[in-house]
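Supplementary Note 3. Input sequence used for the single-chain structure prediction.
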Amino acid sequence: MKAFGKYISKHLASFAAFILVLVLLNVLAFGITFQSIIINDYGDTSPQNMLEEIAAASTLKGVSDDARQKLESAHVWAMFLNPDGNRVWAIDTPEDIPGNYTIQDVALFSKGYLKDYPVFVWNTEDGLLVLGYPKDSYTKLTSNYFSIHAIQTLPLYITGMLATDFSLLFLAYFFSKRKILRSTDPIINAIETLSNGKPVSLSVGGDLSEVAGSINKASHILSRQNEARANWISGVSHDIRTPLSMILGYAERIADDKTINSSIKAQAEIVKQQSVKIKELVQDLNLVSQLEYEMQPLHKEPVRFSKLLRSYAVELLNGGLSDSYSVDVEINPSAENAMLECDFRLIVRAINNLVQNSIKHNPQGCEIRLALDCSETAVTLTVADNGVGLSPEKLRELEEKPHYMESTDDRLNLRHGLGILLVRQIVEAHDGTMKIESEPSRGYKTALCFRVQASQS
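The predicted structure, written as discrete structure tokens, is reproduced below.
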């Protein structure tokens, strides 16, 4: 966890540094955007400075040549009014500017505009100096003035900077997220794999190498525990076989002994049948354990599914199947030559488990259908019956409730029964999928779907 803390702190520090750089860029952009406006409006050519400079160079006769040139270069017109309100001299005044003013006129334009021209006034001993600027160059308030160009530029600047800031923040988020995911995805995937009981081996450098090392250590411990568990189950299965074989042997001898009365023979037959069930259960338990921990080697070979299905059906019918059960084999012409690289023994085991499941849950008999279909990408093997079926609750429990072989939960309500679990593991070992459908009194159907790997005519 310390490694994760350092990793997150590092990224937060990087993001904070990025925000600081972004603020500095905003300040720089503001300076570049409004530099000329600030210089013009508040520098040497600002109205206040122009007033002071022109007033210093003004007399009743006019202004100096330098002052005149400065006015012309700044596109500013000027006039000088005597105490009576008459214009003594003027420089570039527009034609609509009057030559005489009353005290009321002076009071009005001195704080704002004269004929829509923003004007600025300076009181001297000889009279009133008036400087006029082009229309739409400044907006004037009672106590201050603002550049219209600045006011027009400010919304564009704010909009542009916000768009730029959000774009840069999004890019920072995107690349930061991609970098974090690139570093953490292998760890997250490894944890998910580890949670499914599968071993992992991570090779992650940088800040998360310590986390990767911890996960590898946990994986190694889990692998050793799984191996020990599988070996224990295998050992117990092996130890059970010997006494079970003896029980089965003695039960057969008692059942076949003609000197024993029929009641004892019947009891011996029950012992024999139950011993066979225990033997099959031990075999299933051992196989499930080996498949669960990937200790069961798959002996794959090209197998024609139609031939496999027919051979199994013949063996089933010749094995003393009760007349209460019928077996139909339906093979679509498109699936006749479908080939699959698989472990023949395990596929037959999966089919047999499904068939025996139908027989077990329908003691009064049923019709069992073995079907084979094939598309361009997959071959589907279906085992179905028209028996009692399952209720929606039982079907949901079968699909969702964890099996005790796959859970670390110590609850007592975990799902039991190895048949369906073994089928699913065999299918998954062949990269296939299993789907179960069932309704009460309308039968039970299991479809096993495998990707087509080869086809021969």
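Residues 403-416 have pLDDT under 50 and may be disordered. The radius of gyration is 47 Å.
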